Amino acid sequence: MTAAAPTSYTTRRAVEESDLAACFQVRKDVFVGEQDVPEEIEYDAHDATAVHVLAVAADGTALGTGRLLHGADAAGKTGGDLTVGSLGRLAVTRQARGLGVGAALVRAIEEEAARLGLTAVDLHAQTHALGFYERLGYVAYGPEFPDAGIPHRAMRREIGAA
């Protein structure tokens, strides 16, 4: 018997070690376990300086995560524009899909970006997820490219700084 899907959840910036561990476990389950991304490329030096967000069910179960790169860490993904953040590593657990967790995480990352004074958020979307990000206001640009063997497109959404 599978567990019932959680109906209520919250998102928050991951600061405590336990929150960060939960973020990394969700990424391992989704990217390494489900999508066969090699574990050695899933985690990188940016994890130490990124802003991580976490979605948790009322019982504390981790449902999803994402991260925001900013400043010099994001420059390589944003064309060098230091006013643009880079959203990445967005992952939602299998049992939480379809509940709006992914959209809530994107909005939480945008709020963190605005707090940092950024004017836009870029991301590299897996091509199957383009529609999801388009519904959230992101616009694709540039050609399709492979990342970890999966086709991606760059996308951007302008945001207002806080």
Automatic annotation (TrEMBL):
The record, for CDD domains, names: NAT_SF (cd04301)
Enzyme class, one word? Answer: transferase
Enzyme Commission number, as recorded: 2.3.1.-
Which domain of life does the protein's organism represent? Bacteria
Q: Its Gene Ontology molecular function terms?
A: acyltransferase activity
Which residue range or ranges hold the N-acetyltransferase domain?
10-160
Q: Which Pfam families match?
A: Acetyltransf_10
InterPro entries per record: Acyl_CoA_acyltransferase (IPR016181), Bact_Acetyltransf (IPR050832), GNAT_dom (IPR000182)
Assigned keywords, A-Z: Acyltransferase, Transferase
Name of the molecule in the record:
GNAT family N-acetyltransferase
Q: What is the lineage of its organism?
A: Bacteria, Bacillati, Actinomycetota, Actinomycetes, Kitasatosporales
